[in-house]
Amino acid sequence: MNDGYAYHERLGLAAEGRTLLQYLSQRFDHSSSVEWAERIASGQVLIGGLPSHADSVLRAGDEWYGIVLPGSSRMRRSHLTCSMKMMICSP
Predict the structure, then answer these.
(1) d(Cα 51, Cα 1) in Å, to the nearest integer?
(2) pTM, two decimal places
(3) Is the pLDDT of residue 76 over 90?
């Protein structure tokens, strides 16, 4: 279990042309594709501050924001280096 986390990332060329679900599932593999799909569907993941869909196609320069609510399982803080203020995370 975790205390909840907020993510923010400006996407680079590695995200270009991939779907949001593909990108998140592969980049942050501490959570399964099913868990990421549930977060996206429930509005916990935004692209450019707007609701997104699992099949949203990403572009370099897009920004995604995500919130993992307290108590969600399988989140490990060791995968991230985060600034204390906004929890801007990178691997």
Answers:
(1) 25
(2) 0.71
(3) no
